[in-house]
Amino acid sequence: MFSALHPLLLWGVAAVSVPILIHLMLRQRPRPRPWAAMRWLAAALQVAQRRYKLTNLLLLLLRCLVVALAALAVARPNLAGVGSGGRLVLAIDTTASMGARADTPGPLAEAKSALAEASLPDRITVVAIGERARVMADGGRREALAALARLEAQPLPGGVDRAAGSEAGADLIGALAPDADVVVISDFQQDDGDLLDVALAGRCRTRTRWAVGAPSANAVVAGILGLPDLAPDRPGELLLAVEGASDAARISVDGGPATPVTLSGEGGRRRLALPPLTPGVHRLVVELIDAGLAYDNVIELPVTVRAEIPTVAVQTAIDYLGAALAADSHNFQHASVNPVQLPARALPAQGLVALRGAVGEGARLATWVQREQGVLWARLDLLRADAALTPLVAAIGLDDSTIDGGAFASGEADLDPALAVAQAPRVPQVRLPDGAEVLLRAGDAPVVVALPAGSGWVVVELIDLAGHAEFAARGTTPLWVRRVARRLTARLAQPRLWQAGALAPIEARLRRPGAAVDVAAGAPLMAAPGVWQREIDGGASEPVIVVASASEGRLERRTAPGVAHDVATALPSPRGADWGLPLLIAAVVVLLIEGALAAWAGKTYGR
User: Fold this and answer.
1) Burial group, residue 162, by CB count within 10 angstroms (0-12, 13-18, 19+)
2) Which residue, 413, 409, 425, is CA-closest to 474?
3) What is the CATH number of domain 88-216+555-570?
């Protein structure tokens, strides 16, 4: 098969007509030579004319050949099977969606198998597109096939358009040449490759996109909606955010065998029963069972099973809160101190302080809440009266007016019928900041809220609950206190939850055995799912759970028109070597020969 790098320039061959026209217009004739013995010259004239015509025709052919060779050299033709041809560049997507499915090895394995059986040229460059483009092989067919065999899908979100960036795609752009044929191989579920196609335009001979795999349904573990407050040797429940259809999972504890479990719930909220666990920190691995992508089925997380939670009540008289904490020795390791005794008392690590009177340790309490992970429970007026504690509740807007209240309600169905016996007819009108969580209402008005404060929480009583005798006397009030205290202190031990591919909330360096990732604030998080450790000041670290990219798990996208779906269509037509330079050299050689012959002819047959 014949082809050319610049086929339109083949029209230059038509310039062969120019020397023909010049030849016809400027034909030379022998000069007449009068001579007496003409009969002897007649025979010599015929011989000279035959030689002259033959020389003139040879000059015409040489001149035509020079023009034709020059035109072909500019068009740079090649002939299939003659020479080694140009370079084939295989740009292969190795991001997570190219990985294994539950019942198939995945699109990447499909592409590798097809290429191993295809007819490939002698010069091949293999470029893997992941976090960035990387050249894996640049040489012969055997080297390329060996590099293809080593390729594996990486647990990173993405697509091929990332390689269109100047930094991420530098290796791919550097591997191109004007005679290169580029085949971009992907499932094209994350993008259509349009940006990469634009980046390749003008840098190579041909560009082709080959879609491997097929759209399919898929279930994704998109996050954790709530880590439970696990009590020792009691079953618990984990609330997961799940996108897609999956009703079954497997769970393993501390590297033990995986046990099948059933997912309950509807929509994106799925409940998973947890087995009884002993006190301490445990490593849970939950794996969805579905027929889709394997990358986004697993979530790994540490959970803490706590017996008694350390609590301290700073009070001069016992009220409902101090009484509830002191009476529940099964759930709380409680101590009660007078405000003047607080300076000598160590604040509970990841515990709760019930502040029921004014203290001179406001700055210490504020630091403990924000930096050392604690829960501070106090009335709003008490917090506002301390200059060091006021910033913790500065976002709460409090008006002088009051609004209608009503029966108390916590939002928990088993507690509210008993709590509703007590009520607050009028309550202050407040404006709550974003992130505030209402723990108790009087009618529709909030009366107890939780505010995030650094690494801890502040529970704020907007009214004096201790003054509501009916509320304090309810048998369900201690149960409400226990649930609030355990739930909020359980959050103190919860790791940060980040999603792969999403914008990182802060700058961080993440580490785990054999891997480290530097994350820039506001940049996509390129990290594999699992538990990482974030380095913090003082050489300490805190756990960060990276969950799989939800967008990477959406596999129902149809590819754009014009994309090849099989290897035969994707690969360029076989071609030979570029004959442009040899033809140009041949044109110069023929031109020299023509010049020498023209000089001899002019001398021999000139006037």
Assistant:
1) buried
2) 409
3) 3.40.50.410
Torsion of CA 430, 433, 434, 437, to 10 degrees: -60
What would the two tokens of residue 372 be? 């050392």
**38-75 vs 580-605: helix crossing angle, rounded to 10:** 160
Q: Which fold has domain 220-306+495-553?
A: Immunoglobulin-like (2.60.40)
Q: Three-state DSSP class for 561?
A: coil
CATH class of 309-492: alpha beta
SS3 64: helix
CB 495 within 8 A of CB 531: yes
β-bridge mates for residue 217, sequence order: none
Which among 572, 570, 574, 575 is positioned nearest to 114, based on CA atoms? 570
Angle CA(303)–CA(305)–CA(306) in degrees, nearest 5? 135
CA distance 253 to 275: 9
Instruction: Quote the Cα angle for 387-388-391, to 5°.
Output: 85
Q: State residue 152 phi and psi, 5-degree precision.
A: -135, 150
Q: What are phi and psi of 119, to 5 degrees?
A: -85, 110
Pairing between β-strand 496-499 and β-strand 508-512 as defined by DSSP bridges: unpaired
**304: which DSSP letter?**
E
Residue 375: partners with Cβ closer than 8 Å, 6 or more residues away: 351, 352, 353, 369, 456, 457, 458, 459, 485, 488, 489, 492
Same fold, 88-216+555-570 and 309-492: yes
What integer best gives the mean pLDDT of the chain? Answer: 86
- Dump pLDDT digits (tens) for 62-115: 888 888 888 877 776 766 555 555 789 999 999 999 999 888 899 999 999 999
In terms of phi and psi (left: phi > 0; alpha: psi -120 to 50; beta: otherwise), the region of 538 is left
Confidence (pTM): 0.71
Compute the CA torsion angle 130, 133, 136, 137 (nearest 10 deg). Answer: 140
